[in-house]
Amino acid sequence: MKAIMIIYNQAHTEKVEYMLDKLEIGGYSLWENVQGRGTKTGVPHLGTHAWPEINKSVLTIVDDNLVETVLEKVKKIDAVNEEVGIRAFVWEILKMV
Questions:
Q1: What is the pTM of this model?
Q2: Contact, 56 vs 30, CB < 8 A?
Q3: Residues near 2 by Cβ (< 8 Å), separated by ≥ 6?
Q4: Class (C level, CATH) for 2-92
Q5: What is the C-alpha to C-alpha distance for residues 8 and 58, in angstroms, rounded to an integer?
Q6: What does the domain layout of the chain look like in residue ranges?
Q7: What pairs with residue 59 in β-bridges?
Q8: Are 19 and 82 in contact (CB under 8 A)?
């Protein structure tokens, strides 16, 4: 099992939700109003007057065989508009109850 965290500009919300539905990923945790700054462009997403954009984050646990599919879908979303921003991170899940 792997944990995948996807952090994305809220403008990608519909695309991320569609991806999760199409891949039949039913279980996840969602955080809204996630603030931060990406390492590639360094543009802050802080939800302030000066930096009004804001992110969301989704964490899901999936079977190992689904990881590459999710990462490819995230790459495709990012390729449409790299300036908006979406990233995915994968962790090994050793145990869960």
A1: 0.92
A2: yes
A3: 61, 62, 63, 64, 66, 67, 90, 91, 92, 93
A4: alpha beta
A5: 9
A6: 2-92
A7: 5, 29
A8: no
